[in-house]
Here is the input.
Amino acid sequence: MIKITLPDGSAREVESGTTPGDIAAAIGPGLAKAAIAARVDGELYDIMRPLERDVQLALITARDEADALELARHDFAHVLAEAVQALFPGTQITFGPATDDGFYYDVMAPASCGPFTTDDLPAIEAKMREIIRADKPLRREVWSRADLIAKWDADGEVFKAEWAKELPENEELTVYWSGDANDPTAWLDMCRGPHLASTGKLDPDAFKLTRVAGAYWRGDQKNAQLTRIYGTGWLNKKQLNAHLTMLEEAAKRDHRRLGQEMDLFHMQHEAQGSVFWHPHGFTIWRELESYMRRAIDDGGYNEIKTPQLMDVRQWEQSGHWGKYAENMFAVPDIVPDGEDGSPKIAEDAAWMAMKPMNCPAHVLVFKQGIKSYRDLPLRLYEHGCCHRNEPHGALHGLMRVRQFTQDDAHIFCREDQVVEEVRKFCALADRVYKDFGFTYHVKLALRPEKRFGSEADWDKAEQELRDAVAEAGMANDDYGWEELPGEGAFYAPKLEWHLTDAIGRTWQVGTIQGDRVLPERLDASYVGEDGGRHRPVMLHRAIFGSYERFIGILIEHYAGRMPVWLAPVQAVVATIVSDADPYAETVMAKLKAAGIRVQSDYRNESINYKVREHSVGKVPHILVIGKREAEEGKVAIRTLGSQGQRIMTVDEALAMLTEEASAPDLRGGMI
RNA sequence: GCCGCUGUAGCUCAGUGGUAGAGCGCGUCAUUGGUAAUGACGAGGCCGGGAGUUCAAUUCUCCCCAGCGGCACCA
Here is the structure.
């Protein structure tokens, strides 16, 4: 007999081998039907898996949504693999987990039919529904490693066999059958589980296969490329539809689409991965730049500007040429050739490289003149324009570009100032993100495999960041505090700020890194109180990350409806009849004088047309002026997102617009 | 860089082995109007680039380039 303790504290004595499903049935028929899995001593268990020792047991139903979704998605993944193998014999299966919104399965299509395409998805979906409707029981079995390897070898499942062979010698492996023992279509996968009791527990109308993509076996570029089939999966059709609606919403917010509709910027292949900012887009940029300048002035930074090109030897010394050359653009020293007029690379040409980062140049500025401990902390800031030769497949709108401008600064400080400087940065970043209406999580990326510096330096650098975050009161769940092993930069661990936008997506933007490597490599020093030379610590930090990316995030976050202070056009003065134009011109003059970005629309078009066009153009306020307003000295304001209009005097409108058009830091409040 | 898909007018997209169409936008004219599209007419295209098959290629084949979805990468 074993003892099962339930969440309410009650305990039951049952035979060893009793399953959670049996216990649910003993409690009541309703629960027996609803229970889909169990949590046994904190671990997820199949409802049909025998219990063999004293345990704490909690039954899981669809009400435990996170667990239920995870189970369902994992099952969908298995059904997907089963369907693909049923339809395309010879397909090899590998691995198929649940994801944040669904599932995927990586398969190797048989050589005869080549990689799967989206055209194959409808047939696979239909087969999946068939499997679900067949309500095949899912049976867990424990196999020896040797038996399983034999099975995979016999079936020609190269990837599964490789995986099993790498597991520890004596490990017992779990497999799941889909279908009972005498079912000729029974299908087997090696899997940790857990799974639902049968395929029929899934809702056949609660999933959709969404796309296919290439993925490397075990995530390594050197390995075979598999076909990954993605699906989204839910507990019921309603949830699925809600998700599909959210995806549509995200598509509507796509900054590439809005960027074109709002005439903010464009890109073209002659400057692949680089942005042509149009007047409207660059207006947003200028506002952000001004905002950031005020913030750094406030924070005690000094703004500088450093060269775009430096001799490659400089990059060798900083270590970038060794670790980062594949992402750098190198430029030969070209001299004109007098003979035929064509440019020619000199034999002994010096090679220059475009800067991919600003840090070495900032150290060079620091090194000019002798620095005393009294000069520290020295905070050097730059709107640093960097070029990185990103892989073609990585480029994505404004989010991943080859030329971008960072709000980059390096703080040179003494060892004893590090924690305080990081803490101050946390406060500054907090203020900035809140001004844009973001919430955020903070994570600490720890030492990567490829790295510079001693273990002791890394220990210290990591601990400092931990301490500073603790002092800033952010090392807790409210801030999603988490440590990420192996994800730091090659020269330093980094704190990362992950913003959550208006529809719940997250974006990594801000960062601060404590670096002792670069000051050493470039021999930066200051004179201490003791008269001796000391190494400063260098903190790399950014809040927006890059202007390009941050603007992309803002466009999606606000769905193009920028707050008034950032809106490229803050107001349009639109007349109904041309008789009102002269009066409208006086209104324009007043708004312009007050610094409002206002445009007039005196075109020979209906007011309906004008209102529609500027609404679609996401102008925050339309000031409509007809005969009445002209006679009464008023304006009729229609605000984006609202149906009605407000009639007010020009001065009232001016006061309102002026208030809304001022940046949040100048208003002393949040937007 | 890897896998898959896509590339036709400024934009969104139809279409065809016999050198092209719609809507929006743009231009002209009429219309002076009251809060999300006034009407008529008109001008726009090397059908991504190159090669091949063919009497004939925007259409079929191959190679490039770019974009999109992922993977890998993101110092």
